[in-house]
Amino acid sequence: MGGLLYHEVIRRGLSRLIEVRRVVYSGRTRFQRVDIVDTEVFGRMLFLDGISQLSTLDEHIYHESLVHPALLTHPEPRRVLIIGGGDGGALEEVLKHRVVEEVVMVDIDEQLISLTRRYLWEVNRGAFDDPRVQLIFRDGREYIDECSENFDAVILDLTDPLGPSRRLYTLEAYRGIRDIIGDEGIMVTHAESPYIYQREFLTIHRTLSEVYRIVRPYGAWIPSLGPYWMFITASNVHDPKAISPGEIERRLRERGIETKYYTSELHGAIFTLPKNIMEALKRGDAGLSTDERPLERLL
Amino acid sequence: MGGLLYHEVIRRGLSRLIEVRRVVYSGRTRFQRVDIVDTEVFGRMLFLDGISQLSTLDEHIYHESLVHPALLTHPEPRRVLIIGGGDGGALEEVLKHRVVEEVVMVDIDEQLISLTRRYLWEVNRGAFDDPRVQLIFRDGREYIDECSENFDAVILDLTDPLGPSRRLYTLEAYRGIRDIIGDEGIMVTHAESPYIYQREFLTIHRTLSEVYRIVRPYGAWIPSLGPYWMFITASNVHDPKAISPGEIERRLRERGIETKYYTSELHGAIFTLPKNIMEALKRGDAGLSTDERPLERLL
Amino acid sequence: MGGLLYHEVIRRGLSRLIEVRRVVYSGRTRFQRVDIVDTEVFGRMLFLDGISQLSTLDEHIYHESLVHPALLTHPEPRRVLIIGGGDGGALEEVLKHRVVEEVVMVDIDEQLISLTRRYLWEVNRGAFDDPRVQLIFRDGREYIDECSENFDAVILDLTDPLGPSRRLYTLEAYRGIRDIIGDEGIMVTHAESPYIYQREFLTIHRTLSEVYRIVRPYGAWIPSLGPYWMFITASNVHDPKAISPGEIERRLRERGIETKYYTSELHGAIFTLPKNIMEALKRGDAGLSTDERPLERLL
Amino acid sequence: MGGLLYHEVIRRGLSRLIEVRRVVYSGRTRFQRVDIVDTEVFGRMLFLDGISQLSTLDEHIYHESLVHPALLTHPEPRRVLIIGGGDGGALEEVLKHRVVEEVVMVDIDEQLISLTRRYLWEVNRGAFDDPRVQLIFRDGREYIDECSENFDAVILDLTDPLGPSRRLYTLEAYRGIRDIIGDEGIMVTHAESPYIYQREFLTIHRTLSEVYRIVRPYGAWIPSLGPYWMFITASNVHDPKAISPGEIERRLRERGIETKYYTSELHGAIFTLPKNIMEALKRGDAGLSTDERPLERLL
Predict the structure, then answer these.
(1) Angle CA(C63)–CA(C68)–CA(C73) in degrees, nearest 5?
(2) Which residue among the candidates D157, D179, D183, D285 is catalytic per the annotation?
(3) Counting beta carbons within 10 angstroms of the beta carbon of residue B184, is it exposed (0 to 12), middle (13 to 18) or buried (19 or more)?
(4) Which of A268, B43, D160, D217 fits B56 for a cystine, CB–CB 3.0-4.6 Å?
(5) Helix or strand or coil: residue D113?
(6) CA-to-CA dists, residue B23 to A141, C117, C165, D158, angstroms
(7) A226-245, pLDDT tens digit by residue?
(8) What one-character-per-residue DSSP string does C59-92 give?
């Protein structure tokens, strides 16, 4: 009954208590508070500034959902850019695609990556040491604004739109990414929760829709995160809904990808949304997130 | 910060704190503790014995998911039996099907239904007064065991397998229902959560599989319940996966059904499960729930 | 385990969870949020703006400690003024003193008093109906500022120094009271907690010391309030420490007072404080609470 | 808001949430779960099996209250036995008495003492290294039962009566201690909380009263423990109430004792109890704690 708990505020009026077996690490980097704890229910968990980021028990659901739909929709993603993703889980999934020749990962927080390499090895499993990886410790938005290279795919694996990461959820950021991927590329971002943070989800969707022709939301339930979670792919040519499960299956095999959660059949199902979410998207009354007025998750 | 909270234990090591604006009703019936509270986040919520049953904000997700896939899979469900469902939400969805001529609803707790009629009108909206409805206050399992009538569909809308309701999650109960629906009928039950209560979900699935040829799990996320939630249809002839969205659409129109969450496209998607759940189902190492050793949700 | 709780923040970093059996009343008056709840541990409790005020189980400890030391120190308190005290508990204790001929009670919140008369009868037991009582619904500070009458004793039974009640914890308020009681009178206030809210306690003490020659802190532990609680008497002539237990005993009998907690021996003991509190008082480095910069309890 | 908390159940229906800055140590010894955490409010705290034992902010209140009243009541305590007290705080206070020539400390948990020496140095400050100290790692009750030595004073500094420590709260244990101290000695024990654990307090008091002629309860509020806390001295000849503050003051000086909380005046005050506690003690309807039916704190 008594003992150590992690208290996570989901939003004003709703929170969770998670029993903690052991505090593996708890401290501050230059950029954020980092808590890595072993829990009764979800295995090892990572919290940044008090908000759950992943658990060893179900991080594959999150990372497979974030990475594979977009990367498999692209016929030949050779160069991939990851913004954020300091735990290395997205990186690990990207590297599973044999076709990928180079991954640039830009994370602002070098200390965080030292911590996740040490304490969350189960999540990144040596991914940081893959010769195809180039790690850059820098503000993601700055990198995007100054980037003159091209990438086939950009993956936004960010903390929620609170504080500095907000500048990676804006029209200007999405335009910068479009310049990087061109018309032939694809991007993906996680996109908050469809009911609990509906305003945030709709704002991200609308802002992407200003920049890209094909914007496809889909979701997954990751137990340790609490609410259901959304993702959105955006591209000017690539439509994940338009690719048959057969083609997805072929690419999975060709690229040598083993998954625990994602399948080609699931790819065919996840882009079908419930009526209430589709109608909320259609209403189109969400705000636009801009550098001047960036989206901020309300607490 | 301070004030009234509802504390709900999800399972050992995990709980939720939900801010309460107003306690609408709190007391005990002959069978269970009933709390009806207005919350900050989910509107009005119903708790039975401390476990969340529904909220006015999202009960349609639960009830549409419980009722429509099974009833639309059946070509002509004229007589429907609901066991449990004291809030009337499932009843309301069943009655939307014009083809339904008679609904028998068996709930053990008459006082609960008085309370839900009074305080959760938004959920049942006069459904109890529909002339097609016959309300029987009796133990659901007893009713099944002694029933000599036939029904086209049986809907199990139960409290979780804790206490007396456990006897409605057993092999013997499912056999009794099969006798009631015969080879031509279909049944559906909610089936706990695929990760958080995985043992419970797999046990229900395996037990149904002993009795029925076609057993189809599917899921939905209902925000106020916390974890993702599963449902399972079971039948000897009717396969919800085998019906095309077009046919579902036709039946929706023919029966005059308006929904907020469910669509024919969604019907085509929800039966596709992630790999980890499919593999857990295939392992087939779940226990069997019997009257002698009924499934009990661990706390 | 699960169920209704009252969450009370004691201060930043420390809070309590109190199991609630029944919410008796919960709403807002013009001035404050009022929650009256039946708890597992403390009987019926009153919370104002989320802060515990009393419980039926131990309110006598609070009210006897607030009223009797000051009133028994005064040789003949015939006219008594209570500021605040909307639950009527202090009033009941004052009326026990036969010598008291008139009590004026000034509380800003008429609705609160209707609620406490109805739901906390056990606390006030008809005290409001005593013919010696005059009830005035008005801001306490305004009353003090405009009062041209004299009283033998003034009892401050206020909410904590948060929001409007802060103006009753200032130098100006204490001076106004001194004008009302003159050199022959005595006042008493509750004074926060000696460790948990030490700054607040020391500030009240220092501010009173600017106005009165004899300032005597003493304490009591009231289980339902959580932390230990302080009170302070202030007067220019009456010193509760200087009166022998024998004289207190004589006055108790003469005035016909029955108590549950307070005794003449206890009177002789409570003014002896631990060394650490005495030293904190002697350091004299506490701030002064003035109308311009009133004391405010930090959260 | 979010983050690490320590949840302590005070009793069924009442608990505390304490914000944790850092987990210094968390693990199990052979005998108990040990959590040492740095908190926002109370400095460093020690929890055994989820129950708060002390904080660096106020341990002096507890340890001075436990040790000095009994030891100063004895005219010449040269040999002192401490049972429990694994944090070394009571030991430190005992050693302040110059007159003490030898202290035997018996604690069952050697690992706990290693931990408190390392992480709670602020509490024991080298006390374990004093040449007058003999440390024995053994079950306290066994030691008492087999002890053939004499001591002038015995100090019980135990965990609450839950689990194995219950055998140190029984008639048989108190008789064994009387055999050790003889008619000339004195013992003291902490004695739970007068309201929150009233049954427990009264049972300890009654059980001691079966063995000793002079049994004197007194209390102190130690903020980090939550509820007000009681202690009881027991002896056949020494009465702490019968010694004048002047004599206590003389002994304090003679023995060279510096305190932060306790004073000779306080000694004169603390044995005066409120009426409700005195009456509860007089009712004499508490149970007797025996080896066969030992007191157990209810949760």
Answers:
(1) 155
(2) D157
(3) middle
(4) B43
(5) helix
(6) 47, 21, 29, 43
(7) 999 999 999 999 999 999 99
(8) HHHHHHHHHHHHHHHSS---EEEEEE-TTSHHHH
Which CATH code, of 3.40.50.620, 2.60.120.10, 2.30.140.10, 3.30.1300.10, is assigned to A5-53? Answer: 2.30.140.10
Q: How far is CA D151 from CA B187, D78, D103, in A?
A: 77, 8, 9
Question: What interface predicted TM-score (ipTM) does this complex get?
Answer: 0.95
Name the H helices within C104-220: 110-119, 121-124, 140-146, 171-181, 198-209
Chain C residues with CB-CB distance to D226 below 8 A: 226
Closest partner residue to C15 among D17, D272, D275, by Cβ?
A: D17
In single-letter form, the type of residue at position B70 comes to A
CATH domain D5-54 topology = Spermidine Synthase; Chain: A, domain 2 (2.30.140)
Touching check for A26 and chain D: CB below 8 Å? yes
Q: Where are the domains positioned within chain D?
A: 5-54, 59-283
Phi/psi at A23 (nearest 5 deg)? -95, 115
For B26-73, the pLDDT digits (tens) are: 999 999 999 999 999 999 999 999 999 999 999 999 999 999 999 999
Catalytic site includes residue B145: no
Beta carbons within 8 Å of D134's beta carbon, 6+ residues apart: D102, D103, D104, D105
pTM for this structure?
0.94
Interchain CB contact of C51 with B (< 8 Å):
yes
- Residue in the block written with tokens 């009526």: A275
Give D89's Cβ-side CA count (13 Å radius).
25
B3, C35: Cβ pair inside 8 Å? yes
A19 and B14 in contact by Cβ < 8 A?
Answer: yes
Q: Which of residues 257-296 of B touch A (CB under 8 A)?
A: 259-263, 265-266, 268-270, 272-276
The CATH number fitting domain C5-55, selected from 2.30.140.10, 2.60.40.1180, 2.60.40.420, 3.40.50.1820: 2.30.140.10
C23 lies within 8 A of chain B by CB? yes
Is the domain covering D59-283 a CATH 3.40.50.150 domain? yes
CB D166 within 8 A of CB D296: yes
What is the pLDDT, as a whole number, of residue A267? 98
pLDDT score, position D298: 78
Q: Which residue has the tokens 């008005």?
A: C138
B vs C: CB pairs below 8 A? 71
User: How confident is the model over B77-94, as a mean pLDDT?
Assistant: 97
Question: What number of other Cβ atoms are within 10 A of residue C216's Cβ?
Answer: 25
